[in-house]
Design a protein that fits this description.
Length: 96
């Protein structure tokens, strides 16, 4: 999408942003990206069928020293391994 805030449909209840910039990729961020898409069952800019999550790619969250980085809603997380991402998403499901 040419403009990252443009949406053709409402977002999910939770916005999951995964950093895809160089520092995060260098720290195995690709595995975290793949885990996000697998766990949510959507691709970038997609929203889960239950409307709980929208997955967005971002290209720097300013947390390079703690790469790979992710943000769920307005909460920033560092050193997000695939396993940690799964725990974070599960916690959002419980509290939703």
């Amino acid at each position: 999408i040419f403009y990252h805030w443009f949406r053709s449909h409402p977002p999910g209840r939770h916005i999951v942003r995964i950093c895809r910039a160089e520092a995060c990729q260098a720290m195995n961020g690709v595995a975290t990206e793949e885990q996000a898409r697998r766990l949510l069952g959507v691709d970038w800019q997609g929203t889960t069928a239950d409307g709980q999550f929208t997955l967005e790619a971002v290209y720097c969250l300013g947390n390079c020293a703690a790469a790979p980085a992710a943000m769920i809603d307005e909460q920033l997380y560092g050193r997000v391994t695939p396993q940690r991402l799964e725990a974070l998403l599960n916690a959002q499901r419980v509290t939703s």
